[in-house]
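Supplementary Methods. Inverse-folding protocol.

Structures were first reduced to a discrete structure-token string of length 364. This string, shown here, constituted the complete conditioning input.
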């Protein structure tokens, strides 16, 4: 089911942004001292219709009926993400609900802002590239054909560059059904990618792309470090914390790696050894997790500072992602502008060199 239909009907799992907003609402109620059920209901009534409002109202209904908060959360496991349920349960168990969810909301907001910043940094070169390609197709299909007729009528000798532009124009005009078909396939693929494919698989594929991939991986690693640190500070057992962190990152590759690491920890391995992917069946760990983090965690295990080192690593990955996004956006912008200028120069030379020859012939 598409995300838009889920939003309208109030069904489906909350998105990362919605999960962060839900945690903020629960934090506000817990910090205000209001009873959890009536407080969540009052907040839900102020929300527009959708999954978030439905989740708040469902939690309020269950708590008002006397259902313990942990059971009320578990009853909505198809809607509320597992890592958020784990944080709420840990907060209720340790009496630190407001603190844990407040810090989770802060990290989730930073991550969402970071992802938006990545797309904004890449938006300019992407739009410029699309506009340049559209103009090139327009020139090739319309203008080059008109220039070709003039060249034939006057018998102008054509340079190789002009001949190449004319051949491309012929191919485009003869193969326009293929172009339309390819465009339709691209649109359908984009719709499938956006509305049908699950978010974790979509994010996993994005992380493998040449330019956007490293940025997305840094962001995912930052999410993993922050979430795992919070879960460990909430006294969640390490294997369970790894599984919940993997699901919370919303990346299929990292989720598989976290499940493998959890199994290795249950067999007696340390977190640093599991993260290093030394086990024979730890292929997902080696493919998806940062290599140098295991060395930091090895030192942290010796000094009992795992959560602190994870937070530090998360901030480091966040900073690296932001810097890389700025650099990639600037470099791609320059490359796109230079490429567009070269394309304009090629078209202008290819079309106007024969005209110059023609003018010289007529004037001489």
């Amino acid at each position: 089911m598409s995300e838009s239909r889920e939003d309208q009907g109030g069904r489906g799992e909350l998105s990362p942004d919605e999960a962060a907003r839900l945690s903020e609402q629960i934090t506000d109620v817990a910090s205000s001292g209001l009873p959890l059920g009536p407080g969540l209901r009052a907040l839900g009534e102020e929300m527009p219709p959708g999954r978030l409002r439905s989740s708040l109202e469902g939690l309020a209904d269950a708590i008002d009926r006397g259902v313990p908060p942990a059971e009320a959360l578990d009853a909505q496991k198809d809607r509320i993400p597992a890592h958020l349920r784990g944080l709420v349960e840990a907060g209720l168990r340790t009496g630190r609900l407001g603190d844990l969810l407040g810090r989770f909301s802060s990290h989730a907001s930073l991550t969402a802002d970071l992802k938006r910043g990545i797309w904004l940094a890449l938006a300019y070169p992407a739009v410029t590239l699309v506009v340049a390609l559209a103009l090139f197709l327009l020139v090739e299909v319309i203008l080059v054909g008109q220039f070709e007729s003039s060249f034939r009528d006057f018998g102008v000798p054509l340079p190789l560059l002009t001949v190449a532009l004319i051949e491309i124009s012929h191919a485009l005009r003869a193969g326009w059904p293929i172009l339309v078909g390819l465009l339709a396939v691209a649109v359908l693929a984009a719709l499938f990618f956006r509305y049908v494919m699950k978010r974790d698989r979509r994010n996993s594929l994005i992380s493998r792309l040449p330019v956007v991939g490293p940025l997305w991986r840094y962001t995912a690693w930052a999410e993993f470090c922050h979430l795992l640190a919070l879960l460990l500070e909430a006294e969640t057992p390490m294997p369970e914390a790894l599984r919940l962190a993997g699901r919370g990152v919303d990346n299929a590759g990292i989720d598989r790696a976290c499940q493998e690491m959890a199994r290795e920890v249950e067999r007696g391995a340390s977190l640093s050894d599991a993260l290093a992917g030394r086990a024979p069946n730890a292929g997902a760990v080696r493919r998806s997790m940062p290599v140098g983090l295991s060395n930091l965690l090895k030192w942290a295990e010796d000094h009992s500072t795992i959560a602190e080192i994870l937070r530090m690593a998360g901030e480091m990955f966040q900073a690296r992602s932001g810097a890389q996004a700025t650099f990639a956006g600037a470099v791609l912008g320059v490359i796109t502008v230079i490429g567009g200028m070269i394309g304009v120069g090629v078209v202008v030379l290819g079309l106007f060199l024969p005209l110059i020859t023609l003018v010289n012939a007529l004037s001489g």
